[in-house]
Recover the amino acids of this structure.
């Protein structure tokens, strides 16, 4: 592999995609660390090392930049962190457990908690603009549907017959989102494992209650 020639001082390099990626990298990091409203375009341009003209060529407005971060980066993070691992797992429960444990372990190694990227922006932007709300809601919807589809696949394989796919998916997403919010507030990733245990125990308890109810109805005939 030959090395790419270095740009000569004073000469511009024609790499629009690289520039666009650099701006997205900087914006994504800033929105998560400081928030959308606290991240000025001037600060983002300085951090990315781009001019206003170059920035606005790719992102005409700050809103357009934020939507790109949501649709390209946040959606991809949910796909990589949640959807792909759950789909690849042997069962829904195994997938959900593996995600909670993997995230907890990563946060422990990292030493601090910035929170869930989707949660962070949803809390800040959902009421600020309908386009932000629609984009964020779409990611939540895809996340929930992926888990529900996995439950459906489990049911076709003869498992999880007492589980409502949509309700379980909503509970799993809500549990994780709440756990990440608490972990961010307390700067303690242990709450993820506590919430995972509560989720598993709660689902098991609900299944046992349904089975007892069905058994009583059966005996009544």
């Amino acid at each position: 592999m030959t090395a790419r020639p270095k740009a000569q001082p004073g000469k511009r390099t024609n790499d629009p995609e690289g520039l666009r990626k650099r701006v997205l990298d900087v914006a994504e990091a800033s929105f998560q660390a400081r928030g959308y409203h606290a991240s000025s375009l001037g600060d983002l341009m300085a951090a990315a090392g781009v001019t206003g003209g170059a920035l606005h060529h790719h992102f005409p407005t700050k809103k357009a930049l934020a939507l790109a971060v949501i649709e390209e980066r946040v959606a991809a993070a949910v796909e990589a962190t949640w959807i792909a691992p759950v789909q690849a797992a042997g069962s829904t429960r195994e997938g959900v457990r593996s995600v909670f444990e993997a995230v907890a372990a990563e946060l422990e190694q990292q030493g601090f908690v910035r929170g869930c990227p989707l949660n962070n922006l949803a809390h800040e932007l959902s009421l600020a603009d309908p386009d932000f709300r629609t984009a964020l809601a779409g990611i939540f919807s895809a996340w929930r549907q992926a888990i529900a589809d996995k439950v459906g696949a489990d049911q076709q394989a003869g498992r999880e017959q007492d589980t409502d796919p949509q309700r379980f998916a909503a509970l799993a997403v809500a549990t994780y989102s709440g756990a990440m919010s608490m972990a961010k507030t307390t700067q303690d990733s242990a709450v993820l494992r506590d919430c995972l245990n509560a989720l598993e125990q709660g689902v098991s308890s609900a299944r046992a209650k349904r089975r007892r109810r069905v058994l009583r109805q059966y005996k009544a005939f």
About this structure: The domain at 70-220 is CATH 1.10.357.10 (Tetracycline Repressor; domain 2). The chain has a mean pLDDT of 89. The longest helix spans residues 190-220. Residues 68 and 81 are 19 Å apart (CA to CA).
